[in-house]
Design brief:
By secondary structure, the chain is of the alpha/beta class. It has a single domain, classed as Thymidylate synthase/dCMP hydroxymethylase domain (Thymidylate Synthase, Chain A), CATH 3.30.572. 34% of the residues lie in helices and 22% in strands. Strands 1, 2, 3, 4, 5, 6, 7 and 8 form an 8-stranded mixed β-sheet that branches. Helix 1 packs antiparallel against helix 8 and helix 2 packs across helix 7.
Length: 244
């Protein structure tokens, strides 16, 4: 296990773009939070990258937003919107995984903005299983390591143009830097660093690890571009949450 304090993240560049590279998602998230505290609670074009082999999910609960305010989300619930780990662990294979997820959310709105995994496996009017398509492409295409495969979380077909209330995650992209490794990049139009970002980081890493396990590759890193990064709580609340 790597301590979240084992190595200080590095910050490169100046406004309007900021780059944070760290060993773990917690290190990257805390460094970005410090920057937001120093820049009036928001910043644009924030790029965060962390290594997939330095992710310890047990540590994320130390920074659970719901522990500092009952109005904030539980970090496990946020991660599950991107990849529902327990549903996968209780499934025999991918087909039963998708079916179990659909049945669990049959009474809700499976294509709502908050259930990103639902959009990954049932997207648009054509009900495309983007996740399965990505996995099969990596399994069957000889040159797949040279390609970039996208999964959309939003489109003009599924979402109206609106400044607030729409899906913040726009898409995720899978790349193979080598034949054996795979990385993931995610793009967010708005990114709440108090309530969502750290849970998102863990959910994205789960998603990458899953695709790697199904395609025989090694997860290397997760990169997240937040076009607008912010938190809309009191500074004292953010400091308490991030232990700053």
């Amino acid at each position: 296990m790597i301590s979240p304090h084992a190595r200080s993240p590095t910050k490169v560049g100046r406004a309007p773009a900021m780059i944070f590279k760290a060993e773990s998602p917690i290190e990257a998230w805390r460094a970005t939070s410090r920057h937001l505290l120093d820049s009036h609670k928001e910043a644009y074009n924030v790029l965060v990258k962390f290594k997939s082999d330095h992710v310890d999910e047990s540590l994320m609960y130390d920074f659970d937003p719901s522990t500092v305010s009952s109005k904030l989300d539980r970090i496990g619930d946020v991660a599950n919107t991107i990849f529902p780990m327990r549903t996968w662990e209780n499934s025999a294979d991918r087909a039963s995984f998708y079916d179990r997820y659909h049945r669990a959310h049959a009474r809700g709105h499976t294509k709502s903005w908050g259930t990103y995994f639902g959009r990954f496996i049932d997207f648009g009017d054509s009900n495309v299983n983007q996740l399965e398509n990505v996995i099969r492409a990596h399994q069957n295409w000889p040159g797949s390591h040279r390609a970039a495969f996208l999964m959309h979380a939003s489109s003009a077909e599924t979402d109206n143009l609106r400044p607030r209330g729409g899906p913040c995650l726009q898409y995720v992209q899978f790349n193979c830097p080598t034949r054996r490794t795979m990385s993931l990049t995610a793009v967010y139009r708005n990114h709440d660093y108090c309530n969502k970002a750290l849970g998102n980081f863990f959910g994205l890493n789960r998603l990458l690890t899953f695709v790697c396990s199904e395609t025989g590759r090694i997860a290397s890193s997760v990169t997240c571009l937040s076009i607008h990064a912010y938190f809309d709580v009191a500074l004292s609340t953010q400091r308490q949450l991030a232990r700053l």
